[in-house]
Structures are given as structure tokens and as C-alpha cells.
Specification:
The chain has 15 helices and 3 strands. It is mainly alpha-helical. A hairpin with a 4-residue loop joins β2 and β3.
């Protein structure tokens, strides 16, 4: 019916009325029908039309209500591009990203929910950061709770996260960014009630902090003795090998277990924080590669080869 309309303003007005009427229906028995109708309307509609914003809002509201995402895909980058074309203002963008977070949470797509929440927080200026403190708290705990997210230092630059400074959630984030297992255990002992009420268990926090502590240890040396790990990570000797295998499998570190010598050999590890020292390291590496290429080019020109700086 909408496609038969000839005037753009008629198409947009009719689409708004139809999607608003569908989502306003309160009959629980028609949830599946409502979802199907809105998905079909969304999929056949021209995303370049600004009225798609209203349609998208209604689709997201229905996903939140039903906990189901049927017959349509939601891509955060694509939706971001659409909002640019629609010239959506900041408030409209906040509505979409908050609904995206709620929708992805409702359908158990935790990583996408976190991505949407981070984009929401980026829309707050320094003066507005305090307005999103509750969202910032959820963002912090979501990152800590997600079993595959280990790097969180980028959150510290977000204004709503900064507005949490002085609160326990901000202190806990600092530990997961820069601290070690002992820091977390001290925080837990001092704030037992706070941690127990979070949407993540103390045992899950211990697991992640052990992994992060190992990553920090691996940054400073190429070999780590089993005895150091047992002491630093508060693990029994028989728990150590499965733990290291888990760390390697998670991608936090690359290395090998040298059981006869009682140590692990580290070839690389993640950077928990990426600040000036890490940029300087990359710059030095690039400069060395550049010098090596010059040496190789000169050697090829002369018909012989020289050993590059640093051996390769």
C-alpha cells in the first residue's frame, strides 16, 4: 500500500501512522503478527527517507518488548550512517543507541549491546556527562562482566565515565584497567555488599583479574616461572596449567608451557592500556623497519645483501 503512493510526503506520513499504530497495539496475542508486520515494513522501506527514523524506533521498541529479533538485521554502523543521512540531532541519536542497547540485551547479544552503549556515552559532552551516570555505571559493569572483553582503558576518556569519579564503579573500572589480582581482592574485601549486588559474580571477577594480571606480568618478561604465577595469581599448583591454557586460548597471551623447566615462554601479550609508551614502541618499530628497507634496497642495488638492523 505504501509503495503505491506517489508523493514522498504521503509515503512518509502513512509509514509513520502505520508503524505507530502497530507498536501501540497492546494485545499480547498479536505480538508475533506485530513483529512480522513491522519487520516487513522496515525491510521494504527506503532507508534514505527521514521517516525511517520513526519506523526504526518502533522496531526497536518491539524487539525490547518481545525479546525477539525476527526477519530483520540491525547493524550498528549502518544505522549510524542512516542517522547521518537523516540529519538526526544528538537527542534522536541518543534515543536510537539507548534502544539498540536495550534491544540487543533483550535478544542476548551482549557484545553488540555494549557497542551501542559506548556510542551512546560518546554523545555526551563534558558538561553533560553527569546526565548519563546511570548508563555509565551499566557500561562499566557490562565490560567487566563480559567474559571476552579485557581491554577497557578507552572507557576512561568518556565524559559520563569520568562523572563516576569517586564512586565504587569507577574505582573498580580502574582496577580492571590498571590493577592486579591483589588490588581486586582488597577492593572486594572492603566493598563486599557492592560487589555482591553486581550483575557479575566475585568468582567471575577473580577469573578475569587473574588473566589480566598474567597479561601484565607477560609484558615485562619473556619467561615466567611457575612459582611466580602460583604466588601472584593465588592458584594451587595443579590449577596452573589449565589456567595458562585458558589464557593462551583467550588470546590474552601467546606462548608455550615448558613443564620440565617449570615455566612458560611468552612470545606476545595484549596491552591493557594503550598510551604514549605503546605509541613510542610502535614508532620505534616502524622506524627500524624503514631503516631495514633502505638497507635491503641499497644491498639489492649493489648486488649484495647486508644484515638488517635488529636481525630482520
Amino acid at each position: 500500500m505504501i509503495q503505491l503512493l506517489s508523493q514522498v510526503d504521503q509515503i512518509e506520513e502513512t509509514s509513520k501512522k502505520l508503524s505507530n499504530a502497530i507498536v501501540a497495539d497492546t494485545n499480547k496475542e498479536r505480538l508475533l503478527l506485530k513483529s512480522k508486520l513491522l519487520s516487513q515494513q522496515f525491510n521494504c522501506y527506503q532507508p534514505s527517507l527521514s521517516s525511517t527514523y520513526v519506523l526504526l524506533v518502533n522496531v526497536l521498541k518491539l524487539v525490547v518488548e518481545t525479546g525477539q529479533l525476527r526477519n530483520c538485521s540491525l547493524d550498528i554502523d549502518q544505522i549510524s550512517d542512516w542517522m547521518t543521512k537523516w540529519k538526526s540531532d544528538v537527542q534522536e541519536q541518543r534515543v536510537i543507541y539507548r534502544l539498540l542497547h536495550e534491544a540487543f540485551s533483550a535478544v542476548q547479544q551482549g557484545e553488540k549491546a555494549i557497542q551501542a552503549l559506548v556510542r551512546l556515552l560518546k554523545l555526551y559532552s563534558e558538561n553533560e556527562g553527569v546526565e548519563a551516570k546511570s548508563d555509565a555505571h551499566i557500561c562499566v559493569i557490562s565490560h567487566i562482566a563480559h567474559p571476552k572483553i579485557f581491554v577497557m582503558d578507552h572507557l576512561l576518556d568518556l565524559h559520563p565515565i569520568r562523572a563516576l569519579d569517586g564512586q565504587l564503579s569507577h574505582e573498580l573500572l580502574q582496577i580492571f584497567v590498571n590493577g592486579d589480582l591483589n588490588d581486586y581482592i582488597e577492593f572486594y574485601n572492603n566493598n563486599l555488599d557492592f560487589v555482591e549486588k553486581l550483575a557479575v559474580t566475585h568468582e567471575e571477577n577473580l577469573r578475569k583479574m587473574r588473566l589480566l594480571t598474567l597479561a601484565s606480568m607477560a609484558q615485562d618478561c619473556s619467561e615466567i616461572e611457575f612459582s611466580q604465577l602460583v604466588e601472584k595469581l593465588n592458584l594451587a599448583t595443579e590449577e596452573l596449567e589449565p589456567f595458562v591454557i585458558e589464557a593462551i586460548g583467550s588470546g590474552l597471551i601467546k606462548g608455550k608451557i615448558n613443564e620440565p623447566e617449570g615455566k612458560i615462554s611468552i612470545s606476545s601479550t595484549i596491552n591493557r592500556t594503550f598510551k604514549e609508551p605503546q605509541w613510542l614502541f610502535i614508532m620505534n618499530k616502524l622506524e627500524m623497519w624503514q631503516k631495514n628497507l633502505v638497507i635491503i634496497q641499497e644491498s639489492m642495488r649493489k648486488g649484495h645483501f647486508s644484515v638488517p638492523i635488529g636481525g630482520g
